[in-house]
Design a protein that fits this description.
- The chain is built from three helices and three strands, in the order E-H-E-H-E-H.
- The chain is of the alpha/beta class.
- The protein has a domain of about 60 residues: Response regulator (Rossmann fold, 3-Layer(aba) Sandwich).
- The protein has a three-stranded parallel sheet with strand order 2-1-3, sandwiched between helices.
- The longest helix has 11 residues.
- The N and C termini lie far apart (about 65 Å).
């Protein structure tokens, strides 16, 4: 069986939802990640993020777990497994030394 030439196939970009209460962070993430991802939406509060997750089914949700309403971490844990194709990862922001 002949092997197909895959040189013309472009891998699909991950579909990403950006969730952070700071416009500057969302703009920076969007700019830094550039064409490597497809931003399918943005939210600045957890309730709006959940609606967008259900509506747009992103591959990845880049979520600030320290948002002011305090619901981000609990919501990400609750939604993992209840939304098709969803996964949840939790990581802490690095602590930078104060100078």
């Amino acid at each position: 069986m002949a092997r197909k030439d895959r040189s013309d196939v472009t891998p699909a970009r991950p579909r990403v939802l950006l969730v952070d209460d700071h416009d500057l962070f969302r703009a920076g993430a969007r700019s830094e990640l550039g064409d490597a991802i497809e931003v399918v939406g943005e939210a600045d509060e957890v309730a709006a993020a959940i609606e967008l997750i259900v509506e747009r089914l992103p591959d990845v949700v880049l979520l600030d777990v320290h948002m002011p309403d305090g619901e981000a971490r609990r919501s990400s844990k609750r939604s993992s497994g209840t939304i098709p194709r969803s996964s949840s990862w939790h990581c802490r922001s690095p602590t930078l030394p104060r100078t």
